[in-house]
Please model this.
Amino acid sequence: MLFKDIIGQEIIKNKLRCSVSAKRISHAQMFLGPEGSGNLALAIAYAQYICCDDKNEEEACNKCPSCLKYNKLIHPDLHFVFPVVKSTSTKAISDNYLSEWRSAVLENPYLNLNSWLEKIGTENKQGSIFAEESSEIIRKINMKSYESEYKVMIIWMPEKMNVSAGNKLLKMIEEPPEKTLFFLVAEDSKMMLQTILSRCQLIKITAVESAEIEKALSLLQVPDNRVKEITRLANGNYFKALELIHTNDEDTYNFEQFVQFTRLCYQHKVIEIVQWVEGIAGIGRERQKIFLLYTLRMIRENFMLNEKMTSIVYLTEEENSFSQKFSPFINNSNIFALAEEVSKAHYHIECNANPKILFLDLALKVVKLIKN
Model:
């Protein structure tokens, strides 16, 4: 992965280059940025640049033995940790999913958590970084480097690290062996163990600028009439932009479920609501969380539409057609309560609440709120 392969983020790239040339590479760094910002790609490109045998001021050479191995993510001194699921047949550690991980990242280094969990077939389980992973990290970090001057440990989505795993790593992250680098790649600092966050140098990465996304889409030969539409809907998320190039089954599903959910709540059809709950309860927790986040976004967009703030409304043509009729029901009298209830439902799903009870409770509350 080279810096030039990453969309935008020139200021961050320059800072990373300067840290290498000045020999001021922090041993623990947090690449914190929203989904689709390229934080994982930046961490990998930075690691490759550090370990390159013939780099210049701008870029790794892409030809030396180190770069050739980095390009395939198979360098023996490059280690990855990422959320996995527990299985009866294998240990819940990243090494058991390395082949799938390399394939997923090489295909799209802007991947999000849901696309990764779909890749490994989680069978409706939530992904996490478990305590046994920490033991593997400590074992690897205490080994000598094979080829490079530095050992690099990239931990993707550390906010999915459970408390036990995080506590076992505190001392190692604070005082790692010499020439050992920890790059943590996160999206939400509030969901992280603050004891780990406090031990890292923070690199804040912003959403990708619209002009950079437009340029990237044009290079992918996306029709000109769709480039601006996709860029606007992506709202700085390049992963989302790539998804929008083609019809996205997950977004279609979420939209259909949102329409059905809100219509049933508006019409007070309790029996049909119970039937809808049966269906949504069976799709798995990760997809349920995505649906709730989608619902939260649609509530926000409909409120903005109702307030005539169309310049900051991000809806597809199909979503907009529905929202023109639905938006009057999302107003000052219920927007805060609706957003709070959906956010609470998302939190409780994360905490393994019973989905049937949770979604029925949410639906009955929305029934009361939607006509206010």
Notes: The first helix runs from residue 10 to 21. The beta strands are 28-32, 78-81, 151-156, 180-186, 201-204.
